[in-house]
Write a sequence for this structure.
């Protein structure tokens, strides 16, 4: 899954693809490099970020989806949003997956919209919200609490006739450095739920804090940890550097 952040303030590439022409170019580049899915988001979810209006998020994302699909029919597009209005318009425009960092908890219409369009749904775990999630996050039993969250949200999704479910334990979303490594080390626990597991660790701060690296110098450790995630059972990787990501995938596939 390749990332297209149509935002001025995302943690890694904020502003880089805020211009619609650059966003479209980047989406097509990711596709040409071999991305299976293009994930388009119009609202930053970096730690400390706030929310934007529905209207602003729509204006950032929907034109990009329409142009990309006009230029490349059959492109698989996911919409990264927590708002049902944005999800609905994105699915009408041709997106096929909803990627919700709240796992359907911020907007109770999200599962209904996805079910109505027979769309895929990525249920991600997050403790708190982007503005507060990194304020001393704590758990009694990290893996058990995330697992229980997925059990509950999968039931809610199924009630709304969502059939294609992916789960994402939410690296960096209300987790400490130690929590993030623990999640990766125990990915097989989440596989017991019977759904594909997505991991999004690309360039995240736990890598920078561990290795004392700035955001722009995290692609190599990203690729290494993505390889570890693959070996632990991840089915889908959400990444910024598609070339590194695909090299990782090829090597792990060869080992299997």
């Amino acid at each position: 899954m390749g990332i297209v952040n149509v935002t001025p303030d995302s943690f890694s590439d904020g502003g880089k693809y805020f211009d619609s022409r650059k966003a479209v170019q980047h989406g097509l580049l990711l596709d040409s490099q071999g991305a299976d899915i293009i994930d388009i988001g119009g609202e930053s979810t970096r730690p400390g970020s706030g929310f934007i209006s529905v209207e602003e998020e729509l204006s950032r994302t929907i034109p990009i989806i329409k142009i990309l699909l006009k230029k490349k029919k059959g492109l698989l597009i996911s919409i990264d949003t927590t708002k049902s209005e944005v999800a609905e318009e994105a699915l009408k425009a041709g997106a096929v997956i909803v990627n919700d960092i709240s796992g359907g908890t911020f907007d109770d219409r999200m599962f209904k919209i996805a079910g109505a369009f027979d769309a895929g749904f990525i249920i991600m775990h997050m403790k708190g919200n982007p503005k507060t999630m990194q304020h001393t996050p704590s758990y009694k039993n990290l893996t058990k609490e995330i697992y229980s969250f997925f059990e509950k949200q999968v039931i809610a999704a199924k009630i709304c006739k969502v059939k294609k479910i992916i789960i994402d334990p939410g690296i960096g979303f209300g987790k400490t450095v130690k929590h993030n490594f623990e999640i990766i080390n125990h990915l097989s626990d989440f596989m017991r739920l019977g759904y594909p597991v997505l991991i999004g660790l690309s360039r995240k701060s736990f890598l920078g804090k561990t290795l004392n690296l700035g955001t722009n110098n995290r692609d190599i450790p990203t690729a290494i940890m993505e390889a570890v995630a693959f070996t632990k059972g991840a089915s889908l990787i959400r990444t910024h550097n598609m070339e590194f990501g695909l090299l990782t995938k090829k090597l792990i596939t060869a080992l299997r």
User: Anything to note?
Assistant: The CA atoms of residues 231 and 256 lie 9 Å apart. The two ends are 21 Å apart (CA to CA). The first helix runs from residue 20 to 33.
